[in-house]
Amino acid sequence: QSTWGISFHFYSPPMPPQLKMPPLGKLLSRLEIKASKQLSQNFLLNVAITDKIAQLACHQDKNPYFIEIGPGPGALTRSLLNAGAKKVIAIEKDPRFLPLFEDLIGESGGRLSVLISDALKVDELELATKTINPPEGVSVPVHIVGNLPFAVASRLLMKWIHVTKPASEKPVGCYVASMTLMFQKEVAERITAKPHSSLWTRLSVNSQNAFTTEMGSIIRGGSFIPSAKIDAGVVRFVPRNNYQVQGVDTHVLETVCQSLFCTRRKMVRHVFHQYGAQGEAVLAASGVDGNLRAEMLSWEMWQSLCRAILDHDFLKVLKQPHEAK
Predict the structure, then answer these.
(1) How far is residue 213 CA from its own chain's centroid?
(2) In 3-state terms, what secondary structure has residue 10?
(3) Of 150, 159, 253, nearest to 205 (Cα)?
(4) Contact predicate 92/167, CB 8 Å
(5) pTM here?
């Protein structure tokens, strides 16, 4: 796979007039804005790269709605608008970037709105519904995209896993139709890992339970400003028609995964054994071979374990490992 060896086939709708904006590098210098280490900021200003991410995010959707997380100075925002976005709802924590968006909002013809807030505390779908205001009873696909702050990327991903419904349900109002997100390369590789591989972790299980995942490309650390010490990976997520672990809430699966992956290479029976007779009874009821390790479990085994845990009212015990016997 080359640095930008994306294997997707893109739909190319008629392009809107391209934005006429001065280069971001000059604007950042003029406003004396530098990346904040405290907010895990690394700017990606390379237009060729942001345009390809926007292409990947648009995929086959004509004039899509986007929720962009952490736009920073707005390089990817510009690319999304130039790619034909009907609306970009940007959520940015750092208010220093507001002056950069003021002209862009006008230049976009009302296709951009910006909320200064912490994305961890925002209900994106509620925000999209209020912003787009779809007719009652209408389903509106919304695409989440972003160069995520590495320090909170996994927490944001888990948040969106919990709010994304299976594609077969297609809820009324705004719903997550896809996500195109940038992570540290190592995290991206775990998210897209093959089952039973050395990279298969609780993040792999939680992600691939709800989504199909595919690596779009690798972005070299030197492409960022300031230069990042590690490379990044762009991952595209598409909701599955049904969860792999059917009939089990994603919060339940997250808790079970946290327990079983708490120590790499530990056999499943060791996890349940620490809870005494109650834990051993749950494992026995699941029918899962206790000599297996978490990374070797099939989707059917995850489902059996989750069901046994729920049937024995054992979930609250797993949430309090410090009380294990």
Answers:
(1) 10
(2) coil
(3) 253
(4) no
(5) 0.90
